[in-house]
Amino acid sequence: MISFIFISAVKDIEEMGNQTVVTEFVFLGFSNQPVLQGVLFTIFLIVYLVTLLGNFLILTAIRINPALHTPMYYFLSNLSFLDICYTSTTLPIMLVNFFREKKTISYEGCLSQVFFLVSFAGCECVLLAAMAYDRFIAICYPLRYSILMSKRVCNYLVAGSWLCGIVDSLVHTVLAATLTLCGPNQISNFFCDVPLFLELSCSDTSLNEVTLYVASATIGLSPCLFTAVSYMLIISAILKIQSAQGRQKAFSTCASHITVVVIYYGTINFNYDRPSTGFSLNVNILASVLFCIFTPLLNPIIYSLRNKEVKIALRKLFEGYILTSNSHVQISS
Predict the structure, then answer these.
(1) CA angle, 194 as apex, 189 and 200 as ends, to 5°?
(2) Is 201 left (phi over 0), alpha (psi -120 to 50) or beta?
């Protein structure tokens, strides 16, 4: 809603001088595989449904199980919600475009996609750092954990994550909306993003580029470095534990999170830090698919497979569902 307010105020997209201003964009992603449109639609539809189901199960299991009402799972529930929002920003329009000969999105729709995509991505970067901080306190200062990670502190960390993502996104989207786009209107991907938007501009983008670099350092690099330092201290503390069983137990509490962090930053670096030239359209699409689609799919799988408490909660959830279904069947018969 916020994005639409300033989008409509920035330009009337008709004609500027002798230049025709872009009113819609054409996605080139997957357009070079017309024979595989049906197969790709089926694959990505399944991926989308599994992503939604996995993250909704994580959210439900955490909500109904009192044993999971702890800071670590509070952050995990927010991560699952973020993954649902993030994948829902790009996948639905991509699925619809599989049935279109011309895969388009309106100017307003593109800017809105940029706003939500940058918001959720920035929020997840900061949230992963907050989760690393939580594991650092739990392992390095276990006796003070309940004080340092109180409910109030957790709420502040989550609210700060959302605030960082939204403010960062507002700045990028407002600056993108001031650019003059004179064509071509082709986006070499299946979604709108800030770097792709800048490539289409025929006006000065220096301010946008500087802002992008600053945001990459503050919202992207800083949380990554904070997470890395946190895990250095965590590993150092784990190695000081005398018993092998104690070290294994301590490491298991953060194994899922560090796996998610490695996958997230690995895919985001592959997607954004590659040279702008020298890569084919298919490689660009692969990088975006890994980051935007498969990362939200893998997160609930990683936490459900590697986390004993989550597996127990999910098992209870399924058992409760089966018992409820059986009771309804017996009553109806």
Answers:
(1) 70
(2) beta
Q: Right CATH number for 2-10+19-332 from 3.30.1360.40, 1.20.1070.10, 2.60.40.10, 3.40.50.80?
A: 1.20.1070.10
Q: Which helix (H) or strand (E) holds 16?
A: strand 15-16
- Of the CA atoms within 13 Å of residue 205, those in its CB half-sphere come to 19
Nearest to 64 by CA among 73, 53, 72: 73
In this structure, of 84-93, 156-165, 292-301, 308-317, the range with the lowest mean pLDDT score is: 308-317
- Strand blocks (E) in 161-233: 186-187
For residue range 309-328, what is the model confidence (pLDDT) as tens digits? 777 777 777 776 666 665 55
Helices 37-64 & 308-332 angle (0-180, nearest 10): 90
Q: Which CA distances in Å does 35 have to 27, 32, 38, 91, 282?
A: 17, 9, 8, 20, 15
Integer-rounded Cα radius of gyration of the chain: 22
SS3 content of the chain, % helix, strand, coil (to 5): 75, 5, 20
Place of tokens 């660009």: 284
Q: Across the strands, what pairs with 16?
A: 19
User: Any idea which residue has 């994550």 for tokens?
Assistant: 161
Q: Please state, for a pLDDT cut of 90, what percent of the chain lies above it.
A: 34
Per residue, the 3-state secondary structure of 292-328, as one string, reads HHHHHHHHHHHHHHHCHHHHHHHHHHHHHHHHHHHHH
Place of tokens 């000065």: 204
CA distance 214 to 239: 36
On whether the CB atoms of residues 72 and 134 are closer than 8 A, the answer is: yes
Residue identified by tokens 């500087």 is 210
Task: Give the CA distances from residue 154 to residues 71, 131, 210, 307, 315, in Å, rounded to whole numbers and listed in that order.
Answer: 7, 10, 32, 21, 27
Q: At 33, which amino acid appears?
A: Q
